[in-house]
Amino acid sequence: MAQQVATPKSIYVQTATAKLGTIAQTLALTGSVVSPQSISLSPRGAGNVQSISVHVGQTVRANQVLAQLANGTAQAQLLVAQGGLASALGKMAQARQSINPYTLALASANVQVAGDKLQTLMAGAAPAKITQARAAVSANAQSVTQLNQQYAWMKSSKGSQALALADAEHALSALKSGQSPLALAVTNAEQALQGLTNGSAPQNVAVTVQQANATASTAALQTAEGNLQRTQSNTSPQGVAVASDQTTLQTDQQNLVNLQGQLQQAEAGNGLSATVQQSVVSAQNTLDAIKSASSPDGIKVTQDQQALAASEATLTSLQAQTPVTTTLQTQIASAETAVTNAQDALSSDQAAWNAAIAAAQNQLNQASAAAQTANQNAVTALQNQISAAQEAVVSAQGKLAADQANWTNAISVAADQVNAASAAISQQNLANQGKLSILQADQSQAMQIAARALATAKAQYAQALRTDEQAVQMASANEQTALQRMQATLQKAQATLLSSRDNLAALQAPPQPSVLAAAKTAIAAAKLKVEELLHPKNQGTLQALQGAVTAAQGRLQIAQQALSNTVIAAPFPGVITAITAQPGNAVTAAKPIIAMIGTTLELQAQLSQQDINQVHPGERVLFTLPFAPSQNEQGVVASISPVVNPQTLSLTVTIAPARPIVGMASGETASIQVVTKSDPHAVLVPTAAINSQTGAPQVYLVKNGRALLRPVTLGATQGAWTEVLAGVTAGDQVVTLGQTFLAPGDHVTVSNVIARASGAVTAKPSTSTSANPSHAAAPHKGKHHKGKHHKGKHHKGKHHKGKHHKGKHHKGRLG
């Protein structure tokens, strides 16, 4: 019978075209958004909040009024002080010269002015203030409306976060559809292995024919075959070693995952010891106890305030009595002295209380700083442990590869023993059995290659599936975070609107009784002055009267300062970042109620000492922010700190954005890429085409329908593309999928179905970053040597692991 020549089988692959493009080497840094100007504003005195004129996120001018404390008492005290000064000056003038018509007319005019002030108060607030309050209500209402519209847009399907989630879900659905390149690779591998298993493959048919011709065997051959089976068994020493290596690798990988979880906990601030946490809680409790009105200092201040109020009430009552007698004047002077003493006691005790609060606050700050230091030390220790765990994983992978090679070699030796035993049989059996041994070896090799190819294809598909599922989860979490942040901003704006409405209502309400009482007191003082001019009396020596004037001037300055202290204004132009009080709240001078930052924002990152020569002021920088992770922003290196942080052994790099960015907020993290080198004429191939099986990178080219294996020299990697310095030219067709089934010279058929990384990319890809460029290739499986039969030996390819370069991560960017 004539022997039929089998037609060479063509292998289906996918390809892409090598192209010219721009790629840049970058240094990756992680930084945060900061403002050069930041301040927390506190009242300059205790009181109740009357109104807050701004809301969180509002831009303010320098010296713009941000909040107003209730000032009725301060205004009354100012009127009283003004009246006291006028009285003292009048007495001084009376002592220096006798009464004249002009002085009497002036005193009478003061009575008229005081009466006019009282009528003004009775008439209500000035229309201008009410108009201003109404404008504030309108502006705050407009802000709430705009935030409601933004919140509705974010919740709709057109929001940026919703679109990102939809894109991630679409990618996952496409992968699960069964028509993706990875799914087709799994199907092809399963069909190849099934053909070898069910006997329909040429190798199986040939083995069956030769087994029918092999009619004799010897005890030596059976012994050798038994030894081969035992060597191939998982219970053999080599198999046990491989299983042990696999267990060790799994243990090391799990340890690495556990350490990474602990690092995430520590970075989130949850890794502090109970002692450190207790110290912070204890310091906070101490501060709260001292700040409480029921503390010893608080009780003293309350008692002083009560004593001062009683003294002032007594003085007011005496001053209102008529007629004015010598005894009454003596009582008034004594009452004034009591008021002064009560004020001094209140000031002294208030200062002591403030000092105690400041000391407790300092202790809390120290405890918080110690907690932050302890947490940073824990993070550093976990990072070192993770590095060691990563090295252990790499070591375990290397040992597993070595023991797998030893096992393969032992199987090859056992197969050689089977062949040697076969040589001792008769001439006829030798010929038949020799052919059978060769075919069995080819069949075993083909099945092992097919099994490994199937395992690799399934692993790649599973990894891609996990990656897409994680992308969907991350996009969903980002959408929820953005909605929660916008909802919080909306709630704060609504609270500000309610506050401005309350302020308007307060302005439209009748004047407070204390203000009316002060105005009436001013009228009484002015009338008393007229009475004293009409009936002058000896008020003491000129020196004593001068002292009374000086004291009255001091009280007036104190009253003016007290009234000024009820206003909180912006010290510089900026943006409100926090408001911790509401109208009606009682506040103290030690507690900030408004925080703000300047309008200029910049980035700060930490640069290791090893990378100091790679970054220089003026160099171009790319960075992304959490709310737009796919949008690259431009910036430049503004400055590099000349001092190394002794704790982190790093320097602070300050980066200035090239333009103002809407949505950029202080405190946000930023992913930063400093461009250290750029090549606009690089030859680029898809990273998936690179194979590092033999220890040096290679790619398969397709020329005239055949696969050609070409060694290459690699440069930087950017996402899905890698720079080739030598071995490939622009326009070459490189294999991106299916190379695990190829051997040099194989016939190939190109089928670029759903080719994501095909040569159809004509525009420059968007800039992004990736990990170390030289080791991203998939493992290359064993070669199937066609034409030649290597008797008894099973040649398997080596699996070279990629090295993990620590410290510097030189990354690429496509132009």
Rg, nearest Å = 43 Å
Judged by helices, strands and strand pairing, the structural class is alpha+beta
Strand content: 15-25%
Spans where pLDDT lies below 50 across 5 or more residues: 753-815
What gap, in angstroms, lies between the N and C termini?
64 Å
The outline comes out as: elongated
- Sheet bearing the most strands, described? 6 strands, antiparallel, barrel
Mean pLDDT: 79
The total count of helices amounts to 14
Strand order of the largest sheet: 2-11-14-13-12-15
Number of strands: 22
Helical content stands at 40-55%
Describe the protein in words.
- The structure is a single chain.
- The protein is an alpha+beta fold.
- 53% of the residues lie in helices and 18% in strands.
- It has 14 helices and 22 strands.
- The strands form 5 sheets. A 6-stranded antiparallel barrel has the order 2-11-14-13-12-15. A 4-stranded antiparallel sheet has the order 3-10-8-5, with no helix packed on it. It has a 4-stranded antiparallel sheet with strand order 7-6-4-9.
- A hairpin with a 2-residue loop joins strand 12 and strand 13.
- The C terminus is likely disordered.
